[in-house]
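The data layer described in this paper is built around a simple, fixed record for each protein. Because each token names a local backbone shape, the row as a whole describes the fold. We quote a single record here, exactly as it is kept in our systems:

***
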Amino acid sequence: MRDVTVYTTEGCGFCTRVKMLLSNRGIEFREENLAGKPDAVVELSEKTGMMTLPQVLVGSILIGGYDETAAAAASGMLADLLAD
């Protein structure tokens, strides 16, 4: 199974929701809380092209935020990415 990384910040409702979605599906993930780390946020946005959090990556593949991750889970795409 590929590693899953969830980039979050404090007080973020969508961050909480995406972590719950992954947990409820039994998907282990590493959380990177970027609260108070503006340089890390800039570095991540340069890497992914996204300016918002959460951001979910499977290996080096960007899934997106909560909505994209929920859609990938519902369509089976997330399971396929994890299996590779």
Notes: The two ends are 7 Å apart (CA to CA). Residues 4-83 form a domain with the Glutaredoxin fold (CATH 3.40.30.10). The mean pLDDT is 96. The helical segments are 13-24, 38-48, 66-75, 77-83.
